[in-house]
Amino acid sequence: MNTKVLFAAMLVAVFTMGYYADNTVAFAQYMGNVGSQGETGKYTLEEALELQRRRIESIEANPQAGSGTPVLSADGIFGAAAITAIVFGTMSGALFLKGRSGKYAAMGRG
To answer: Do residues 56 and 13 share a domain?
Structure first.
């Protein structure tokens, strides 16, 4: 392949990625623009603090409810890991057993 064409294609790809990379920036704590009365976007800082205070009070009132993260269910952390291990373990075991026999298996090994 012509190296000049390859180099030009790589430069176009790099500049294109740089152009669109600005759209993927995430502002996690962004609450909006400050208005004339001091309000910020969705809700003010005082409203955000009040919501957090209510959440803490709700958790303290119901300690048996937990954090809300389903750890042992199928859509939780360990459930998803177990399902993934079963699927990929079955696939790798099947491929391993298929690879031990067949037309191209080494003689004397299977």
So the answer is: yes
